[in-house]
Amino acid sequence: MSDSASQEEPKSAQENEKEDKERKPEATEVNEPIENPQGSPDSSALDTSNSVAEEATNEIKSQELNMEEQPSISTGSVKESNIEGSKNIVVRKPAKVLFDVDQTVLDSKIEQPWKKNLFEILEVRAQAMQQKITAKDNQKKELEKKAEKKIPKDNLAKEWFNTENMTLNTRVYLLDKLLPTLVVGVEKMLKQVEKKKLLTEADIPTKFDPINYLGEYLMRNNPYYIKGSGMSGYQRVMRDVTEDLKIHVTNTICNRISKMKEKVKEKQKQRESINEVKVKVANTRKQALQEQFNEWILDPNGTIPLVVIQNVLHEFFQNPDFQLEEYCKQLNITDSMEGRLNKMEFIEYISSYIADFKSDMFEELLKHLCHCADEFREVIKTDMKRQMFVELFLYCDRGKVGFLDRQRTLSLLEIFYDRSSKTLRSLLRNPRQWPFIEFEEIDLSEFWGDMDSQKHIYEDFDNLLLETNKLLSEKHASKTQSKLSENSEDQPKHDKHRKSSPPEQQKGTTAEQDPHKILTEEQDVEPAAEPGLYSESIPAQGHHKESTVRQGTLRGSTTERSSRRGSVAERSHRGSVIDQGSQRGSIAEEGSSRESTGERGSRRESVAEQESRRGSIAEEGSRRELTSRKGSRRGSRKESVIEETYKGSTEEQESPENTIPEESPENTIPEEQNMDSTSQSREGNILREIKKSREATPFECIEEEEDTQEQTFEGELSMIAEQQEEEPLSNRNNLSETAKKEVQKDKACEPKSQKIEGKPWSGELLTCNWKNNAKCEDEEQANLIYGNSRFTELHSIIRNIQSYKEMKGRSGFNGISFNLLQFVQLLETFVGEDAPLSVSETLTSFFKRGYAETKEEKMNNLEEARRNTSRVRRGLLLEALFQMWDYDSSGFLDLKEVDELLYTYKDGMEKESMKTAKLHIQFPKPQPDHEVKLSSKQFQKYIELVVSELRGHEDQVLDSLVEFLMTTLERTHIECLRNSARRKWLHQIQRAAKTSGVSLKPVYTETFKALTQDAQAHGNKMISAHISLLEENQLLPYRGTVLLRNVACTLDDAPLVLNKVLYRDMKGISFTVVDEGKPIHVPQVQHHGNIFFWNDSRKKTDQNGSFLALPLQDAYMRIFGVLAVDTLRDPQKINIFLPHEIRFYQGVANVFSTAYHYVHSREHILHIVITGISWLYELTPNITNITTYFIEPSPEQGADYVLRNMMVTGPLGLTQIHKKTPIIFRKTCIFRDFLFKCTDSSEVVLASVCGENHIVIPLRERTGEALGALDFNIGRSKMLLYRDFKDLQKMMKVIQAACYEILGELSGEIEKKHVLEIEKMGEVQRAGVLFFRIMLQELQESLQLLTSMNFVSLLLYENEPKSLPHRRSQELEANIKLIRDILTGAILFIHPELEFSSDLENWDKCKLYVNRSFVERICAFDPTAKHVQVNLKLINEYLRDHSRIDVWKFGNTVIEYLYHWSHICLALTELNKKQNSAFTPPLPSKIDSSCVYAKMPGGSSLGNNDTVCQRSGTYGL
Question: pLDDT-derived band of residue 635, with 50, 70 and 90 as boundaries?
């Protein structure tokens, strides 16, 4: 086929040349009549020119097609022939790849330029012809215009226009074919008749025949043969009439063209109208955006940061209800505050994204913009507070050490909190409680057994919540009763009043009824629903009466927020129902902000609260013992006076029924009137330290200054209280509901103020530039090293080390000091979001006066800062030295080689000191070849010990030693380049583990990529590789207790190797590597005899190559798998691995092991979190959802770290896990930056966004830095009840302890311990029960702290006097049943044989089992042991009738402990029975669908049944 194609090529070229020559005379012949204007009439010339142009065009097209077809045919023929000749060749792109091309084809390609020349000539000729035709047409049009001017139109011809359907076709035919000539002929005939006077002289004979004349005229002027020189005015009008009539003739070209033109005109009009509407809509939208621009607070230049608007649009596009995710791809969000938008730019920028929006979507966008404008004000207000706190930190950090003392800071917060008024304390958060103090700082008995609601983070939160709900229900009941009486007695008057009442009042009444109906129906049924009911009842009171519990959370609507955006007084007078009651309470409290201890200790209780407080003798005794044993490190409980009155409508405010009677001091508890001595002593120590520091200053009149400052502080606090109580009660009482709503509407219509509480915005956001304030010691020390010429050879290595650190800016919590990020976050958490800026200013001034350090403390801080700096610098230098020494990137150094080089330091004079240093370090176990390998950490520790033994300053000695080792090591340039490339490949493996979203697939991919790239670049080899992991052999144990399963391999070997199993009784050296723990290299596998080949079809003669097997070891140097590399696919018969390649492959195995365990540690943590969330959801129904985040390096080069959304647990307890987990960037979270605040500072963050409150708790690594965060969304309630708040703390403490244990074991820092028997079954099973095991241990430790009197008082509870009111007696019976059932359930765990005994039904005999050994056996009980056989169904019958709320209300520590202990034992026992199905976590790497749901045991689950894991937790209410 290639030969025929080559013959056709010259033939086609010759034919083209002949056609070109023939075309030239034709073109000249065509041009002649065009150039001669007198040769023919105009119409014929036009037709000729058109036909010539069409013929020329057709010829050119045909020539082009012929020219293009010939080479394509020849090329295709060549390819087909080649493919037939060689069938083994695989061509991926046949259109571009040619094999064995003939010379004729190449010659045809060389002759291609003639085609270009021909096309150029034809193009010039065609353009010349077209120009002549166009000139001819223009000349004709000009002649017609001149004729029209000379001969006027005769409108008489318009009478021919008639659209009657019967004669339309005939009339058109006559007008088109006959009448134009006939009318002119008749006209001329009549002129001849008139000329010859035939009409006047009728009798005169004549030869003139009109018919003959007319016939002759028609024959002589036939338009088909003769073209007239011109047209009369009558003919022109007739021609126009004819054209108009042709339009009305159906099924003709003119008719169809006219219809098409009409449709075109209609569509054009429609487009014009649509464009007009679009323009009007665009203008209307621009006006709306222009008005909306005024809602925003602007910088001094009148602009808004671009990144803020981008965040607004991004948040709107991310809304799943709108389905606008495609628009997010168009947003390129900046990460700086440099870009600004004025009004016009703001309008144009938003308009560019909403051009296709419908009206409904645009309205939603406007609502979103208004809401974000209000949220942005809150962001700026919070940012102003943070700027104050940053300046405060810099002021207090006089030594510029970068940290402040933590205990001193907390003590000052406690003093400020105690000296504040009650109204101010309702806004602040108690610094003596979590999250200000850590879990480890709380006594174990207090953490698990303390049920005093006064220790809530918000003062008297539970009491205020219960009393407010009670008052709301009473109000609703009174309203309902009054309405019923009015309807029955005076229905006409009621109807008349209803008609005359304003519509606003009717709406308000209707709005108030629904929440109260819900409350009255459900409040007595289940007290757990109280927070939700309370949150629903608040809006019915009006915008100016928000309660303390909900203050600052309901920020949904614009009108609500606008009504709260006034001055401090306007904000504070809408504070809370409780605050209003307290303002009307006592004059002494309003007058002074200093309260005595007795005033703060006294409190009033409602009747229901008194009854619940009065417990039993056992309860009181246990509480007194716990209180006496606490020894609290945080201070005492200071309970403020509760003076609460409910404020409803005008009539109800004056009614005395809505006020709570004041309780006498006799009913107060004496324990709660006194402050803890520890807190008082700490406050005294702080004040004494302040005095000492001021005595050292050279100021005079210090005593007067102290008095003045104390008075100033007291005055500032009282001023804040007065601002919050500024509006008189009489003014508020005299306003009707209608008037209040009108005032509120007027305020909503007013333009927004450009100030935040009277202060303008500077235009800067600390949130966006927060990284600039974070001090990175590594970068500072690296820059100092770059400027030191002594370490020039290490500069490039240190730059690479710094570039590989991708998660910077996080602060580790150490429990001793606060850095800038942590200090600012702590004060922000203390102040809260609802407190005005004046509170932050007062707190700042108080800290400036109160935070004082002694001279000794300043010196210690400076020394600590110097040690930190030296430690960071030392780490950088030694890490760079290690990488320079380890030029093959093996990850280890030979101790013998290190010692040989160290002993030559100073010509061996320091050899003895170095030997002494080796005595203080524990080296790893030597390898089978007696080689001791040092990792990077071990090498650094060894060098540091050597430096400590040498004489001189440590920093100077270290610099000289590093310089000596650096200059002594001899490395070629090629070795340095090879080391740099290999470090980069190893870093990609580590990065893949951190960015995988808990999946091993990217780790496998990067591992094989590093191996193949190094083999090609530094070994010139083609390799194959696979990874096999050890598994327990359960199916065929006679073939060995363990097996090796190939879990990953290179792509070409997948069909032969993947998922295959290697047993011990098979050939192979992999188990030898497992047993010996060292690499084995087989240079020539064909001569070994003990190599197992996975490809059975390979001939023995083709089994040539090298094989290398390397062990995979964990942190304890235990082998868990094998990495195998071979060169069987390499075409070279002999291609062995060189020593530097083997060492690099060892480094790959080491890095892979680290990455493998990193991914598994995150898997185990997710498993623990799922278990903890399951436990919490069964106890706390008031959490909306829980979201789990992990920290990862950013996919963008050089960017900040990101947060990956791993899973979301909804209100039903279903945990949704996505396969493609979403990533959250910092630059998209200006309005939701609380997540990054938590991970930056590693502290708990309390935030409110879009009316919903969040508690964000960090998951910490062992270094104190955050590895992730849990976001608890508690809805619109300000805070959880104290019961739920304590359960949340318990869950987080256990989860954090489990994380520490998992991370410590995987890193080798702590030894693995198995407490329960179920933990010995495997790592996955252990992660599934670790949460319950740690909680079980903590409860056992807490039970050991109890005394025998705790149990005796509990057993004597049923001896309470029976002569009690009916309600009290019912409560007593319920408590007795609770005690018996909980104790019986615990006894059945310890004594399962009691199930078959009659003592179980007799309580007097059953309680005898509660003896001295009862607690000891509980603390030693293992519910997963093989010998434990308990009746779970029977125990569950005793426990299921008692909810968590009943146990909490009873308030006994022993019952609290045993309740949790029994349920944990039940959960562990159930998990032990379901070992195969209850432990596999549904992680992203193990699911096939888009998402999967985790569900409790026994419940149904959504998604793929094969990948669903049942949650390990059982609690029932």
Answer: very low
Q: Specify whether the backbone of 400 is left (phi greater than 0), alpha (psi in -120 to 50) or beta.
A: left
Q: Give the integer Cα–Cα distance in Å for 1375 and 1446.
A: 9
pLDDT value at position 995?
92
Angle, vertex CA 1168, rays to CA 1167 and CA 1170, nearest 5: 65
Distance separating alpha carbons of residues 188 and 184, to the nearest angstrom: 6
CB 1234 within 8 A of CB 1245: yes
Coil/strand/helix, residue 1116: coil
Cα distance between residue 1063 and residue 1040, in whole Å: 7
Tokens found for residue 850: 């109160």
CA angle (746, 752, 754) in 5-degree steps: 150
How far lies 1059's CA from each of 256, 551, 1046, 1055, 1119, in Å? 72, 60, 5, 9, 20
At which residue do the structure tokens 């309370």 appear?
534
* pLDDT score for 1476: 55
d(CA 50, CA 1220) in angstroms, rounded, equals 65
Name the H helices within 820-935. Answer: 820-831, 837-850, 855-885, 895-902, 911-918
3-state secondary structure of 1347: coil
1033-1059 in b/e form (b: 16+ CB < 10 A) is beeeeeeeeebbebebbbeebeebbbe
What is the DSSP code (8-state) at residue 752?
Answer: P
**Which residue in this structure is represented by tokens 């129906």?**
521
**Closest listed residue to residue 475, CA positions, set 423, 429, 515, 443:** 515
What pLDDT is recorded for position 606?
Answer: 38
Type of residue at 675: M
pTM: 0.73
Q: Are the C-beta atoms of 619 and 654 separated by less than 8 Å? A: no
Do residues 640 and 585 touch, judged by C-beta distance below 8 A? no
Residues 6+ apart with CB under 8 A from 1486: 1480, 1507
Pick from 1364, 1391, 1388: which is nearest to 1376 by CA? 1364
Would strands 1215-1218 and 1202-1209 be described as parallel, antiparallel, or unpaired? antiparallel
DSSP 628-693: HH---SS----PPP---B---SHHHHH-GGGBPPPPPGGGS-GGGGS--HHHHHHHHHHHHHHHHH
Identify any residues that bridge with 1493 across adjacent strands, giving them in sequence order: 1216
Count other Cβ atoms within 10 Å, centred on residue 1025: 22
Whether 401 contacts 327, CB under 8 Å:
no
CB contact set of 1372 (below 8 Å; sequence gap of 6+): 1360, 1364
Per-residue pLDDT of 522-537, as tens digits, reads 434 333 333 343 333 3
Q: How far is CA 249 from CA 81, 240, 241, 255, 258, in A?
A: 62, 15, 13, 6, 10
In degrees rounded to 5, what are phi and psi of residue 223? Answer: -65, -15
What span, in angstroms and rounded, lies between the C-alpha atoms of 776 and 728?
52
- The CA angle 28-32-35, to the nearest 5 degrees, is 125
**Mean pLDDT confidence for 651-666:** 36
- Provide the b/e sequence for 1342-1362 (b: ≥16 CB within 10 Å): bbebbeeebbebbbebbeeee
CA 1177 centroid distance within chain: 23
N-term to C-term CA, the chain: 86
Share the mean pLDDT of the chain: 75
What sign has the CA pseudo-torsion 1271, 1273, 1279, 1281?
Answer: negative
Q: Peptide bond before 1481: cis, by omega within 30 degrees of 0? A: no
Query: What would the pLDDT profile of 456-484 be if each residue is shown by its tens digit?
Result: 898 888 777 777 777 777 777 777 777 66
